[in-house]
Amino acid sequence: MHHAADRGNAAVAPAADGGGPAGHRPAARGKWWPLVAITLGNFMLLVDVTIVNTALPRMADGLGASFTSLQWVMDIYALALAALLMVAGSAADLFGRRRLYLAGLALFALSSLACGLAPDAGTLIAARAVQGIGAAAMFATNTPLLMAHYQGRDRGVAFGIWGGTSGAAAAVGPVLGGLLTEFTDWRAIFLVNLPLTAVAVWITVRWVRESHGDRTARIDWAGAASFTVCTGALMYGLIRGGEHGWTESGTVASLVAAALALIVFVAVERQKRQPLLDLQLLRRPSFAVLMAAALLLQAAAFPYLTYVGLWTQNILGLSPVAAGLAVTPMALMSLLIGALGGRRLAQLAPQIPIGCGLLLTGAGGLLHALLLDGNTDAGWATLTPGLAVSGLGIGMAMPVLVSAALGAAPPQRAGMASGAVNTFRQLGYAIGIAVLGTVFATTLRDAAPGTAAGGHGSKEAVGAAYVSGLTDITLLSGIVAVAAGLLVLAVVRRSDAGTGAPSAPAAGKPVPQDGSDGNGRDTAPAGIGTGSGGA
């Protein structure tokens, strides 16, 4: 074990000793190229969560896709990312972070090409699933690669730029999707990844060094498989239930399979010496509530924007670019709060910014519902106040969430806590798409039969049905976020959740230079993974 650790530390010696994969390039020549490669990959995988929103109406027309198919196009990417994020981190520690990052980039590029050439909705959904697998490999290696390449002040600069691009991805995604869809074709939203991925691969091969975690660790394949089956069956059951009914045999079978897979996952994790997720962490009230907050914040804040995009284009007649611009107040407000108040927020007891941020996010959803309810004259501007209020809440809660989770876990489990909170975030987005899509489609069918697929009946009836559906899902989102905020304020405490910074190593214990916590799990400064995007 010591030999492996020594090799890992040697592979990531400070840049002054040489840069580049083989260590022959002077550090001064290419110190920031690893940041460019990693940030570019991170930006692409996060943009691909939101870039699809503004392309959905034309995608549906081009492929003859049903409403359920559109749900899966959005959901399967986040689901694959959530299901495989933790196991990808373990694989990166064992096989090499640079190697897995390159594999993720290659898979992401090939699946993006398949998405862009997809002849039907089924092929597109399958390609999006593979794209999510590539994204998981990329996302899991971002933090440890950055920590392996940068120390001291450079590390702070690197994470600041990396985190800033994460937030920018949320703002750029809908507008970029609109531009590509309006002036070229919806397929361009996927094909644009090809040249960007090629650039990222070239820089990675040339400038990024290899690093490892604990190379004696074993991957928890049984835990990963049962977790993947559980989440996949759950999403399938939720979406199928909305389309075919909750007592339909396929729906019931899927939900039962999800429950059984969850039981298997818990049993496996209890027996493993090196589990995917240490279930003892969930016995800590603050940690358990923070995981719930990560899931519920993501479920309440972002998924309803998918259905807003359908409304603004199908009913209001906005162009894809205008539809993308209509939802940017949320991301812009979130970025503004993070930029102006991020340092002060980190000094507060974590339950304050997270709890109050969730309450504000919920208030934004409830404001949407209030302004939309029965308002047949509603336009895109009706959403602006609620989007701004929600963005304020997201900007408060998101930057503190990961560092609070790190503080709520023992130092030796910091890397696992980081992976868990990002997994719960992605899972929240996937659940939100499924649940809100089910509610939205049900309301549309009840208010104006035939509208769920986008358009039968009189224009007035369809428009009223869409407004009614948006009212229901924003109301539900608001209630969920408010409840989560109250739970955080009631349970999470500073002593359990830290102060927004990772715990210091124990006295006499050396600090690993490979971006790990000394047990093969990556750790990061406060704020990692805090972009305001759906990922």
Describe this structure in words.
The radius of gyration is 22 Å and the shape is globular. The chain is mostly helical. The chain has helices at residues 2-11, 27-30, 33-50, 56-63, 67-95, 97-117, 121-149, 152-183, 188-191, 193-207, 221-244, 249-271, 285-301, 304-314, 320-326, 328-347, 351-372, 384-407, 414-447, 459-491, 494-497. The two termini are 34 Å apart. It has 21 helices and no strands. Helix content is 73%, strand content 0%.
* Alpha carbon gyration radius: 22 Å
**Bulk shape:** globular
Count of extended strands: 0
Q: Largest sheet, if any?
A: none
**Poorly predicted ranges (pLDDT <50, ≥5 residues)?**
1-26, 499-534
Properties at a glance:
mainly alpha; 73% helix; disordered C terminus
Task: Sum this structure up briefly.
With 535 residues, the protein is mostly helical.
How is the topology of this model organized?
Elements: H1 2-11, H2 27-30, H3 33-50, H4 56-63, H5 67-95, H6 97-117, H7 121-149, H8 152-183, H9 188-191, H10 193-207, H11 221-244, H12 249-271, H13 285-301, H14 304-314, H15 320-326, H16 328-347, H17 351-372, H18 384-407, H19 414-447, H20 459-491, H21 494-497
